[in-house]
Amino acid sequence: MQDFVLALPFLLLGAGILTALAFSRSGWTASRLGWTLSLFPFSSFILALYAFTLVPSGKALTFSIPWIPSLGLNFSLYLDGLAALFALLITGIGTLVVIYAGQYFGDDASAWRFHAYTLLFMLAMLGLVLAGDLITLFIFWEGTSISSFLLIAYKFKDEAARKGAFKSLFITGGGGIAMLTGFLFVIHLTGSADFKTVLASGDLLRTSPLYPVLFTLIAFGAFTKSAQFPAHIWLPEAMTAPTPASAFLHSATMVKAGVYLLARLNPALGGTDTWFWTLSIVGLTTMLVGAYLGFKQNDLKPLLAYSTISQLGVLVALIGQDTEIAFKALVISILAHALYKSALFMSAGIIDHETGTRDLRKLGGLCKQMPVMFGIMGIAILSMAGLPPLFGFLAKETLLASATHPSLPPIVDSLFPLTTVLAGALILAQAVLAVWGVFLGKPADEKHPPHGHDPNFSFWLAPAVPALLSLLIGLAPVEPQFLVNFLADAAKAAYGDKVKVSLTLWTGLNVPLVLSIVAVMLGALLFRQRGRIRPWMTNFLPNFTVNALFNGTMSGLDSLSRLATRLQRGQMRFYLRVMLLGMVALVAMFVGVPAGVPVPKFEWNLVGLNGLRMFSLVMLTAAALVSVFIKRDLHAVIALGITGLGVAVWMALDPSPDVALVQIVVDILATVILILSLSLIPRRLRDRANELLHSRKGMARDALIAGAAGLVMAGLAFIALNTRPRESVVSPFYAENAKPLTGAKDIVGAIVVDFRGADTLIEILVFAMAGLGIYTLLHYAARKGGEYTREPPEIPLRAHTPLGIHNLPTSPMLHMLAYIMFPLAFMLGVTHMMYGHDQPGDGFTAGVIVSLTIAQWYMLFGYYETRRKLAWLNRNNMIVAGLTLALFNAAGGAVFGGGFFAPVNYGEMLGLPLPAGFGITNSFFFEVAIALTVMGAATLILDNLGHPREEDLEAEADLAALEEKP
Amino acid sequence: MNLLTSLAIGILFAAGIYQILRRNLIRAAIGLVLISNAVNLFLFSAGAYTGIEAAYSTATRQVSDPLPQALVLTAIVISMGGFAFVLSLLYVISTRYKTSDSDEVKGLKN
Hints:
The structure holds 2 protein chains of 2 kinds.
Chain A: H1 8-22, H2 30-37, H3 39-54, E1 61-68, E2 73-79, H4 81-105, H5 112-130, H6 134-152, H7 159-190, H8 195-200, H9 202-207, H10 211-225, H11 234-237, H12 243-252, H13 257-269, H14 273-294, H15 300-320, H16 324-355, H17 371-385, H18 391-402, H19 410-440, H20 457-475, H21 481-495, H22 511-528, H23 530-539, H24 546-565, H25 572-589, H26 611-629, H27 633-653, H28 657-678, H29 683-693, H30 699-723, H31 730-742, H32 747-755, H33 757-784, H34 812-835, H35 843-861, H36 863-869, H37 875-897, H38 906-910, H39 922-945, H40 952-964
Antiparallel strand pairs in A: 1-2
Helix pairs in contact in A: 1-3, 1-5, 2-4, 3-4, 4-5, 4-12, 4-16, 4-20, 4-21, 5-6, 6-7, 7-10, 10-13, 12-16, 13-15, 14-15, 14-19, 15-16, 15-19, 16-17, 16-18, 16-20, 16-21, 17-19, 17-20, 18-20, 18-22, 19-22, 25-30, 26-27, 27-28, 28-35, 31-32, 32-33, 33-37, 33-39, 34-35, 34-39, 35-36, 35-39, ...
Chain B: H1 2-21, H2 25-45, H3 66-96
Helix pairs in contact in B: 1-2, 2-3
């Protein structure tokens, strides 16, 4: 149960976010909120420290809860030396940043948002380093991308902030997707996402033919996140974030995520030539490019950002080396860099806050006004420059010591120390430049020297802590044993073997020291000659940047998408043409038989074809064609009805009476509804549209497209029908179990009402929704648009002369017929419900048959008369009653039958004397429910589409006006 | 028989698609029903085996495959609901745009 301690920091940080939200309206100042909220990361820090003490040396503490067990996915956590190093940095520096952010935003009561984002980021970052498997890691990885987007765009009214945030999200997000793909390859090869398995399958992964692919993808993700050249361009622009965010994200945490990933996977993926060369070349290039570009900067924050890029390059290059000392250098550099860089960023924020600028050209001579800041920043910058006696010196010494590779050819081998020395000199020069520019040198404009003074203690506390730690670790008279063991553990987890770590500064006169002295002298020279070198750097290739490439790509994508949206010209038929042609082209592309699949034998297979079948096929195709060619739309509707009946005949011949019955009644109802709604559309509109149907314009084109699509569908249907399996696994089960399990003779009915009852429940729900949708559309949505003024129908008290559809008088003979049909249809419906289990027909047919007679009434008596005569027929109540009954009935199965929708025979249970063939079962109730719902929804549809046109006169006037126009 | 069924399906599709592609919205609705008929016909024909008798447990000879029948039954009812909704849209269009010509329906863009 002690593993649970791993999950606790997450709960704490989550509670922190909730606290920040809870105080959003309290009016608390950022400062007060910052102090309060710092308790959450601080306690997480303590917990992480405690958890680390529980880890047996060289092993890992794990915690796992199942997440999607069917996919083998877990939410798992994993703590070893490497994860602990990062977790402590995140929570430790996080605590300081939260306090610092409180001071930075001061009295701003709206800064709770910043606090919430920071804690959210911290949660994601902690999850990233503590993740116990690849998928968990990926999710938190994306979490850091998103929360850092929010932080960078915190001042969202500033366009530069939005652009910077987008750029970082675009690049790191793209890398994240590549990384996920790489992870999927790893999971595919090892069979598990779990780190324990993955880290132990190094040989399997390295020898796999997929290794280059997965390595490239994962390395790409890591490189984008850790701002490696040429993906480094997002980091300087992310400096538009408020400084507390920069101090946190861009020094110690997010940019190190890629480094962490590479270090974490080194035991599984590292050690190959590909690994060595890629990481070395990318890392060293980044180191040099970052150092070079940093020396050009005049703004403190970008200067620090470029030196961070350079340092990240160093870390990546170190992971590429397969030597013990490289990993010693790695862990020391990670810690040293996190300490001095966070101190420097926070100091830069304070200077900006106090003097109003970060521009080195405007600053200068502040050492007397801000002695404390001079001290803090001076210590941190010396550590960055790698000068003794600071921790940074130690980091650089170890780095230089690791930069020799006796196994490589001498020329290549000498490149390593050479670039390191060069980059070190550039870093040193810009470090001195920063301190000189702020505190010692003279401001460019001597008449307006910058004003500022040291802030109060609580503001400078946050940068002072890491700066002093850099000094203390360097100066400690005895090696702090805990720290040594801690770093050794971290290095061991990354290296895969024991790493000896020592923190002594003075190791005698050796090659690294000599190189270091060379670097310092070169750096001093660069600094002295800055007046000549920096202007030259600014003018050297000013337009050739990776940014230009990025912007070019983005605008290229933009114009491509504009080109694509040209297709969307607002004409629906055009969309349809494009889609259909696309479908035809897609099918045409895949025409052919894939290798290994037996070619289907072409058979005429006229078994079962008889005159009646032939007749039904001819009838339905002929009617379909007639509906196209016939001139008047009312006739086309009739032809459509005939097509539907043809389909029904075909179904009845199969033989499948249930479907045929439903097809017949639904087809008739559809025809009736279509005729009803045709009567709503003014005759002249319809006539004009009909002329367009038969106009020559575009006819050949449409016919060609339709013909091609029809041919494709016929071909697909033919192939599908010819190659379909001739045995079913499911159907025999239904056939055998219909009677014993549900008591139904009708297997189709049993499937609909019992076996797939939930399906049917959803189906009647959809049908009811269609009815309600029509009602809403005609009564509210259309009225909101302002074109539709019809009030919900009110039945006038005065009796109307019954006028049928189109306001035509109807004969009393037909009225009499309608009076007789109605009760008959009701009785027919009831029998369908009662005996549907053993005979063709079911709740659907019952509902539709009754609806058909109601439709007949609408046609013969007209809207008002029908509503008056059938006032008791409340469609809303019918829908509600139907759906409620269906649900309760299904629940009844759970109570009496042992499962939702389980069959129960209530009649038998109560011993009721019932006629043979009829049972009061829950299937029967379900049939009733279906019938009620279908009837209600159908009546609702008829009611709305059968409504008389009150705006007839208005439309006529409009039409007259239309026709007068030329 | 498969060939003839496929041909019928193809003709129904072609007739339906042609009507949808023309400028007459009422015919487009008709085309929609033709297409759903074609789909139902296809699903119905996709049963694993054809029978001589209807699928009743009392049948003594080979019964037809009940599974596609049950599925098509559901499909028929649902396509009917969708069709009714399309018709009400047609009505709204005819009052809002005073037309049943799809090209005259403007304002879809922007």
